[in-house]
Structure formats: structure tokens, C-alpha cells
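Researcher: Good morning. I'm working through a list of sequences from a screen, and I'd like to move beyond sequence-only analysis. For each chain I'm collecting a predicted structure so we can compare shapes side by side. This is the next one on the list. No need for commentary yet; just the structure.
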Amino acid sequence: MADLATQLAELPTIRKAAVLLLSLDAEASGSILKEMAPKAVEEVTRELASMGPIPQDLRDGVLTEFYQLAVSQSWACEGGLDRARSMLMAGLDKSEAERIMGSISQHVRKTPFSFLQKAESTNLLTFIQDEHPQTIALIVSHLQYSKASEILSGLPAAKQIEVVKRVANMEQTNPEVVSEVEAGLEARLANMLNQSFEKMGGVETVAEMLNLTDRTTEKSIMEGLESEDPDLVEEIRRLMFVFEDINLVDDKGIQSVLKEVENDELALALKTASEPLQEKIFRNMSERASALIQEDMEFMGPVRISDVESSQQRIVDIVRRLEDAGEIIISGRGGDKDMIV
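Model: Good morning. C-alpha cells for this chain:
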């Protein structure tokens, strides 16, 4: 079995956030959730719903990492690493202080473009919009998804497509190149101190950014990519909305979707669905239909995971088609902005 350090290194950030919230009391967790963006709350809540038992040592490791990261961000911002080291040396024995400083230094060093945290999106957009698409792609792939989507939405249509293509195809980037671009920007953007996130590049990054853009921007980018790389477009679409995201569809929309889904398909698709999603689906069916589906699921027996995923994808395709037709609204996807209450 992998040691604790390896487990922590391989644990996704969203899972760490969920473990942290699970480790705190309800009041503390609630206070943290109040400070988070709605999209982040949805993601971490979904992660919490799917989690099983967490080993105590892993939980302790996440709490320790969170504490050290919080300390590193606070102290590095207020006084730099030297200030952090002097404070630690004053309060702890030398070996413990050096151990924590090693962890703090690692966190500070591994966040490229850390000076971009406090820059307003509009200011940052003005500053980088004339950069080469590859440079913009490198920058936005290090930004929080919400900020990256705002930057993407403000770019000219042609440059949006070029940037998205480069982000999608970005995997490993030479650290020297990152450092060179970072140093150049920091020198020219000294009055816009900011911090970035670790997520970098890939189709997943594009999907997350487009999930947060308005529908007009999303359609424009996807249509522009369609003629050049239809396979990439399909890959992005499949990542932008997954089966569990049906939780974001309101009850009226769920009922519209269910009209187009056969019972046997639905029973198979719900086989691995989370309990909250199953409850939402059953709540929008008649008691008799719900009972039949649940009975089918109970007596279905072993099924191939690939068959379950295929059924889920077919239902996701129905949801996407109905959303494109304006027949349903997915919370957080921009359509609700046009509603009048």
C-alpha cells in the first residue's frame, strides 16, 4: 500500500477539500462554505456525497497540509519566507521549524503566476488580451476556473478559439518557459498582485472554463472549433456535463428528460448514480413508475460498467439537446440569467 505522503500527493484537490470539511464541526464547515463560490460549493458537496469512510491518518494528513498551506500563503504574503522562518524559529524547536519551512517553501514554489491572485479580471484581460494566444493559454490554465472563464469571455472570438485549442493540447510545459513568461509578466504587472491555482491545461480545464462562461460565448467557441477539430469538441462536451450534473436540472426539466428515456435505460443508468440523484429522479416520477424502476435495479444483477456509462451518456445527450433547444435550464450554465422572477 502507498505511504501517506504518496496518498496525499495523488489525492485530488476537490477530495482534499471534502475531507477537510468532513473533519471540521458543522459550524466551521458552514463558515467555510459561505466564503466559497457557488460552483465550488456544488463540486465539494457532490464529492462529499460520494465519499466513503476516510482513514484517520489520511484525514490528519489533509488537515496538516491545509494548515501548512494556509500558513505559507499568509506569511508569504505578509512578510515573505524569511519572515515566516523567523516566526517559526521563535515558536518551535529548530528541527520542527525546518520541517514546516520545507513544506511551506514547496507550496510557495509550486504555484506559478502566484502574483496574479488579486488582479481584477477586467484589468488582467486588458493587460493580456494582446499577448500571443500561447501565452494567454499558459496564463489562463493556471487561473481559477471562474477567473479564466471571465478572461476567455472577454477575448475576441478568433482568439478565444486559438486559446482554447492551445489549452486543450497543453500537458507538460517546460518549467523554464513558465518561469520566463512569469518573470516578464510580473515585471510589467507589478501593481496587480495575485495568486493562481495549480490546475494546468488539458481538455478538463477547457471544459471547466466553458461551464462557467455564458451560453453565447460557449456556443461561439464550440462552433468555431467544430470545423477544425470535431473530436476535440465532442471530448469537451462530454466533460462539460456529466450524468451526476443532472442534479443541476430543475424538477420541470427532469420531467421533460424522463419523457424521452425508456425505463430499462433509466434503471441501468441509475445503477451507479449517487443517492441524491436517484432521489431527485424518483421524486419526479409517479410512485408506481418509481417502484418499478427500483425493482428493476434491485433484480438487475451484475452489469458491465461500460453499459452503465453508455446509458448515462445517452441520457446526458438528451439533456444537452433539450438545453440547446431552450426546453430545460441547467443551474449555473448561464440560462438562468435570462429568467425574470
